Amino acid sequence: MRPYAFLLYPFAVLYNLITKVRNWFFDLGWLERTKSPLKSILVGNLSIGGTGKTPMVEYLISKVKSRQKTATLSRGYGRKTSGFLKAKRGVLPSDIGDEPYQIFSKFGKEISVFVGEKRVEALNSIALNFPENELVILDDAFQHRYVQVDSTILLTTFDQPFYSDFLLPMGRLRESRRGAQRADLIVVTKCPLGILESEKIEMIKKIRKYNKVAPILSSTIGYGQPYPIGKESTFSQQVILLSGIANDEQLKKYVSANFNLLETLKYPDHHEYSLSDFDKIKDIYDTYSERSPIIITTEKDAVKVKSSSPSGFLEEIPIFVLPIQVVFSQEDERFMESFIDQVILQKK
Questions:
Q1: CATH number reported for the structural domain that contains residue 131 in this entry
Q2: Which of 45, 95, 125, 199 might form a disulfide with 51, Cβ 3.0–4.6 angstroms?
Q3: Distance between CA 125 and CA 129 in Å, rounded?
């Protein structure tokens, strides 16, 4: 929590009252909830960003895409369009948002990717106009309670767990910690490698204060082999890190441990790269030119860099993407597969 956060306490109290009344209205049925017309699983969190929702959605896609016709639905945060849209060839990140574009770039030939602020209307449109879809994965809709889904996965990070956080604007929580009781499964993401069993037990005890029954799993981040987004380039251990994500601490730790990190260019989450940004990137690259460096960036940033960089930029500067994925222990992996089978795929 920020040192001056206590000054924001009155605003957090007001925010808590508003969200509590809203959830109370849903619980009493005074605000209507609509059952999803498709089998559905929701991935969300209690905090604002940085819990690893997109890697979790991609993990689920990889598990179900060959078994059922799958679609994803998200709000499309940061897009310059509005309403219900289906991603198709030629779409840009500004059309559907960063995360949906990343998912479409990786899985667009195997699944359908949709965006829509009004999830109930969007789900009905999918069911009516794209009836081949059997299962929909909703990204970042934990607070969108107008939709009643088949199962809900709540994510929280090891370093910033919801049970140690505070409501906006004091902290990063979108609603009270007690919102965790709505989860059917809780996954603690971004756990360090070699996490002790005692740490897991302590973590579970603290989560159990807010959800007595949901299974609790833990996952780590797995990094793949960097690959170029422009012309084929020679990889180098001399790295400039470029990122515009909510929390880049684990990314920096990994890059520092595995490469020679020369400098870090950190931008806000969902940053729109401008010509001045590309000029700055080139200036920093030129500063280290004698070392023949490369730039490493995230998958999310890569799609925006590729679509908005000036002509010739990707041919002049070697930029590599560092892919990430969710990694479970063997035991938790088996449970996840069973969870998907029983709760999602076999649900009537």
A1: 3.40.50.300
A2: 45
A3: 6
pTM (predicted TM-score): 0.93
Q: How confident is the model at residue 68 (pLDDT cuts 50, 70, 90)?
A: very high
Q: Using alpha carbons only, give the angle 300, 304, 305 rounded to the nearest 5 degrees.
A: 110
Q: Tokens standing for 304?
A: 């925006």
**Statement to judge: residues 75 and 158 lie in one domain:** yes
Please name the residue ranges forming H helices in 138-274. Answer: 197-207, 249-258
Same domain, 152 and 235: no
Whether residues 156 and 292 fall in one domain: no
Does residue 183 sit in the same domain as residue 264?
Answer: no
Domain that holds residue 190: 5-222+328-345
Q: Across-strand partners of 213?
A: none
Residue 175: which residues within 8 A CB-CB, separation 6 or more? 19, 23, 46, 143, 167
Question: How many whole angstroms separate alpha carbon 61 and alpha carbon 139?
Answer: 12
Q: Would you say 293 and 238 are in contact if contact means Cβ atoms under 8 Å apart?
A: yes
Query: Can you give the CATH number for the domain in which 246 is found?
Result: 3.40.50
**Whether residue 212 is found in the same domain as residue 244:** no
Indicate whether 154 and 277 sit together in one domain: no
- Residues 110-137 pLDDT 10s: 999 999 999 999 999 999 999 999 999 9
Instruction: Round to whole Å and give the CA distance between 263 and 163.
Output: 34
Domain count, the chain: 2
